[in-house]
Amino acid sequence: MTPKRLGILISGRGSNMETLLKAAQQPSCPYAPALVIANKPDAGGLDKARSYGVAAEAIDHKLFGKDREAFERAMDGRLKAAGVELVALAGFMRVLTPWFVNEWAGRLINIHPSLLPKYPGVDTHKRCLEAGDTVHGCTVHQVTAGVDEGPVIGQAEIDVVPGDTPDTLAARVLKAEHVLFPRCLAAVARKAGTRVREDLVVDGVTVRLYAPAGQTAVNPRQ
Ligand code: GRF
Fold this sequence. Notes:
By secondary structure, this protein is of the alpha/beta class. It folds into 2 domains: 1-104, Rossmann fold (3-Layer(aba) Sandwich); 111-213, 3-Layer(aba) Sandwich (Rossmann fold). The protein is 31% helix and 24% strand. The protein has 6 helices and 9 strands. Strand 4, helix 4 (98-103) and strand 5 (108-112) form a beta-alpha-beta unit. Helix 5 (124-131) packs across helix 6 (166-190). The two termini are 15 Å apart. The protein binds 5-O-phosphono-beta-D-ribofuranosylamine. Residues 10, 12-16, 90-91, 111-113, 174, 177 line the site of 5-O-phosphono-beta-D-ribofuranosylamine (GRF). 5-O-phosphono-beta-D-ribofuranosylamine binds next to helix 1, strand 5 and helix 6.
């Protein structure tokens, strides 16, 4: 199978992006990073991507003022020029318009730091602690016009422990994100998936991976 050409959109440090770039170094990986775009020129992830030999550029959304679609048309043009077939939002902190979402429908995948449908939007770790939840985690999902609402591809769960703060929780959820995202993206690129549950220990954190019943399932071993 020819690997799908992957575009990655970022806004910051790009640790999720890096897990995708690392996974793509395996010969069996069904996606190949073609282009990284950041909406912020100072995004740390840009140099990180270049250190993997991947083309990386900034398209500063501020240059487009309030015209979100003009910004997105600029990104869309660069993605298409690079032959991108699948787009990963890896800590991309701009809400996309229905125009862009429609243009990439079914080929646009986001990672969100909560167990959706709980806590769409921002401050997910704080909201989880305030609610007194005992489990938290992250979700990889298809992007649709509603923010953080698209069909779930896979989720990873971690335990909330006594004394957790938003920062300690964010750090453990991030480890789960790094495990979940490459696996889900591989499943999407292969148009495959097997309903499997798996518990992993990642740097001392137990991460429970699963695809919700009735949703697109993911084989965490991919
Ligand atoms: C991640 O927690 C992601 O889920 C959220 O923003 C963070 C980005 O981190 N949307 P990174 O840039 O991938 O390190």
